Amino acid sequence: MIGRRHQVALALTAVLTAAAACSQQVRQDPGRGGAAGPPAGRGFTLVATGDILTHPAVLERASSDASDGGYDFRPMLFGVEPLVHGADLALCHLEDGAGGTAPLSPPQLAQDLAMTGYDGCATASEHALDHGVDGIRGTLDTLDAAGLAHVGTARSEDESRRPARYRAGSARVAQLSYTFDTAQPLPDGQPWALAPIVADRIVADARAARKAGADVVVLSLHWGTGDDDAPTEDQIALARALTAAADGRRPDIDLVLGSHTHVPQPYEKVNGTWVVYGLGDQISDELDDGNGSRDPRGNESTLARFTFAPPARAGERWQVTRAEFVPQMYDLDAGRVVDVGRAVAGGADLAGVRDRIRDVVLSRGAAKDGLVMGE
């Protein structure tokens, strides 16, 4: 019997085919790959998505989509590609590695993320050391080969001190990444292999990135409690402390992006800075509700989209002039990431999913600060 979600996926075909045309547009971002940035004074749009977890069912789908006996993640990411390619800067989060050694994700994942339009990935998570420092090395080598920037894990002490650096519009953007915990102890003699969440260190690293020339500092935090759609008191307290840190006329951190919670969590403007407590899992197998049944929230997520404008005066912060969230869902039957809002507009029966995500995202009053549901 064809599942309901598979019927929905079939209904989405026309919608996603039309959306694919948008993904063929060439992104005008001369700053990629270290080239000189565009003329001064141009703003930019940043998009970010949640955890990618290559569970066995996900790998099975990518294998069945491949025509060469390997893995192909492009069909899985097809629904998000227009949004990713439409941004000046696109960031993802890898909870699993991508080093090609089982059970790490195959290297095709990094290649396909780059082809989808992503510029870089945060890699700090509690599972980053599951395969030791060799797993970290393999993952980062694979991301390098695909042309994806990365931050949060490191192959050397020197690398651990460097943020990921990007050009977006006329801005120099730095990304930092940290995790609340690790399932494995930090390796002897190599504590720098994974960046833990320590508030003082994060502020110091953000200030160092600013001193090195970053106009915008983006912080990726792997934090919170899994399966909980409300931020913990620790998340809230840390968000307040980090967004309050400032040096001169601008804050040390310009945007906070959260992962690990597996389900969408609220967006909130804290001390004038946008905080996404949890983006949710962009790609993963089903989430158990603790009673042996599937929890559909585990396959729901958001794409965060923030438009930044340059400051009126030198030395002041870049301002977010538009803040948006785009509801997403990973369709388990079809093995596809679905842009829920676009699907609903195309007639698919996903209004309940859209409304559930919207209610959570706006539950801490973000609408009054201008957050809107994007398309």
Write the layout of secondary structure elements.
Layout: H1 4-23, E1 44-52, H2 56-65, H3 74-77, H4 81-85, E2 89-94, H5 108-116, E3 120-122, H6 132-146, E4 149-151, H7 157-160, E5 164-168, E6 171-179, H8 199-211, E7 216-222, H9 233-244, E8 246-247, E9 250-251, E10 255-259, E11 267-270, E12 273-276, E13 281-283, E14 287-288, E15 294-295, E16 300-309, E17 319-331, E18 336-339, H10 340-345, H11 351-361, E19 371-373
Parallel strand pairs: 1-2, 1-13, 2-3, 3-4, 6-7, 7-10, 10-12, 17-19
Antiparallel strand pairs: 1-16, 5-6, 8-9, 11-12, 14-15, 16-17, 17-18
Helix pairs in contact: 5-6
Q: What's the number of extended β-strand segments?
A: 19
Going by CATH, the architecture would be 4-Layer Sandwich
Class computed from helices, strands and strand pairing: alpha/beta
Strand share of the residues? 25-35%
CATH superfamily: Metallo-dependent phosphatases
Top CATH class:
Alpha Beta
Uncertain parts: 1-39
Main pleated-sheet profile: 9 strands, mixed
Average residue pLDDT: 88
Number of separate helices:
11
Along the chain, the helix and strand elements come as HEHHHEHEHEHEEHEHEEEEEEEEEEEHHE
Quickly count the domains: 1
Portion of residues within helices: 25-40%
Whole-angstrom Rg? 19 Å
